[in-house]
Amino acid sequence: MGSIALPEQYVVSDQYIHQPRRIRIIVVGAGISGIAFAYKAKELENVEYQIYEKNGDVGGTWLESRYPGCSCDIPAHSYTYPWIGNPDWSGVKWKWPDIPGLHSFEGKLVHTACYPQDLDLRGKDKSPLSGAGSSGIQVVPYNSTQSPTWIAPQFAGHLASAGRATKYTEEEKEKFRNDREYLRKYRQEIDHAINSRFPNFYKGSQERKISREIVEKGMRERLSKMDPELREKLIPDFDVGCRRVTPGDGYLEALQEPNVEVEINNEGVVTADGKTYPADVIMQPRLRYVLCSSVPTHRKNACLEKGGQRRAQRPILLVLFPDMPNYFKSTGVSFTFANKIQREGVKSVVVSQQATTEFNDHKDAVMELLTFSGNCNSWYKGGTSNGRIVGPWAGSLNHFLESIRDPRLQDFEFTYESANRFAYLGRGLSLKDIKKEDLAWYIR
Known about the structure:
Belongs to the FAD-binding monooxygenase family. This protein has helices at 32-40, 61-64, 134-143, 170-178, 180-195, 206-222, 228-234, 251-255, 337-343, 353-367, 397-405, 431-435, and strands at 23-28, 47-52, 108-111, 263-264, 268-270, 276-278, 281-284, 297-298, 303-305, 346-351, 412-416. It is an alpha/beta fold. Among the domains are: 1-19 and 296-444, no CATH class; 90-94 and 131-261, no CATH class. It is elongated, with a radius of gyration of 26 Å.
């Protein structure tokens, strides 16, 4: 029998199937995602990585954002890594906004994203605050902006009826420490309660109507001491979810204090009626630019993220950009392309422009069904009222997890280390064959 003619220079790789080759990874940032990578990297083989961080310590947002009242706006037992809970809980790049005259102010400008720990407001009679997002509503009660923002009841409030004032007793923390299954179920109950609220965001739904009635009723009760005309200005005319929903313990109450009252000049703040309010310190809550790198990022033929171009770029599945091989955005959970790169001899992977366009067209259409696309300014739309939504996923959390569990590989372009894409199959052996493990594992 004659032999089969093979390509002249092809040589079978001396390896077993899916043998992990050595790869090098750069992680930009030691925030929550960078720390998560370092933890999970302990499970990887033949991986060399380097984490680059602009700050002097790890933590990212939570290292920088240490203004008075700073906290996460969902229960702390949910705001943590999924693989382990903390039993001992006690209870995007920032930039200055484009406000006319902001930098002509001759006093002190303070941004919550880089809050000076030595800032002392005692004796400062006038300290205006610009913005009423999550950071703004947290810092107001501690430094006592008035703009419409939905101030919601506590997320999973049945588990923490006192809101952010909830304090776990030593007995409760001891139980969390000693009974991991109890802690897991407690965390699961919190997440279930939060995830069950997604139908509230469908325009025209009964759930949306009920959620607005509940939140509006709560706001009116908490603003009962305020001048009626001003109170009406604080109740949004847009749907719950158009802007980020914020719990804001103490915020509405602080607005009714006598010391709480927008172009900025060298003296202070100028309000819509033309009056100038002199100020000692002006605070600017954190403004987020979602999916934007803090360093210029270049793709094959152009700069992807630099200056004004940032907001126009949108990835597929919140993770990959076209013309950016082996570049992955970490916005939380993502799929395991790095495993495929390492185990199948992939040199680079990049999503096609057509797939990216179609994905974002679908996302835009779904967003029109949701309150995220309502008529309000929000960071979801890059600080505009009618821009394309760049932040949230167009669906529930479980919808997102299912979508990345089985990604459409036909939408991606792969190049390989070898001229033959099947070189990763090696000499015909598996790792089980080499280790002489149970070779009949498939019989159950």
